[in-house]
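Can anyone check this?
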Amino acid sequence: MAISDIEIGGYGLEEDLPLLGFSMWNIIVFLLVLVIGFVVIKIVTSSTRKALLRMNIAELLANFLIRMLRILLYIFLVGIALSMLGVAVGAALVSISIVLGFVLGFALGDILGSIAAGFMIAITKPFKKDDYVTVNGESGVVRNVGISITELDTPDNKHLVIPNKSVWGSNIINFTRNPTRRIDMTVGVSYGDDLDKVIKLTYNILTLNPKVLKDPAPRVAVNDMGDSSVNLVIRPWVNTEDYWDVYFELQKTIKQSYDKNGISIPFPQMDVHLEGEK
C-alpha cells in the first residue's frame, strides 16, 4: 500500500489539512526530525565535550562551549523541522533576526553583556570548578559557570547565582588557586611583658606545628604600640588546604602558651564614674 492510499480521519496522509496548508505526513516527518535531531544533538555534544576534555581544555570552558554549540544545533534543528511543514525557513529567519535585533538591543542588553562576560571568564579562567573565590562581594565555592551566570555555594551551604556581567565587572579573589597561603594574625601583649621572650615563644609555637612551612619561614614581629597593648604580627605560611585548620589551631595554642608562661593579653577596659559619687 502506498503512503498516498493511507487515510486518517477521512484525510489522506499526503492530503493538505484544512486551514493548515500541510498534510499529516508533514506533521509525522516534522516530529520524526525533532526526535531524531534531539538524539543526534545529545550524542554530538556529549562526544564533543569528551573530546575537548581529552585536549586538556578546562572543564568550565568545555561546558561553556558545549552549551553554545547545543543552542546553535537546536536552532538549526528547528529550522530543518519547520521546513518539513513547508515553512519558508529563510524568510522566517530573516524576520526573526530583525525582531530579535530589536529585542536583544533594548530588552536583553544585560543578558548579552553577561553572555560576553561568561565567554571572557571561560577564556581567561580566573577560577575553576571547586575554587573558593570572592566575586562581586560574595564568597563561595565555584560550582558552575554557565553562559550568563556563575553559581557558588557559600560555606553555610547557600546557593548563589550571580550574573556573569557582575562577576567579570568586579574584582575576583581566588583563595585556592595558589598552592600556598600566608596566615596573618595579630595578638596584643602587655607593655610589661618581655617582648624578646614573647617573640621567641611565639616563633617556637609556629616552628613546632608540622603544617607550618619552613620555606618561606614564619615571622613574628612588633607591629605597633596600641592604646593598651603592644601588638605583634604573626605570619606563618601553609599549604592552601591547611589554611583554616592551622589558623584555628594556632589561635588556641598561642592563648594556652601565653597563659602558661605568664604572658597577658590585655583587653579594653572602661572606668565609669557616676556624678555625685564620694
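Reply from J.R.: I decoded it. The mean pLDDT is 82.
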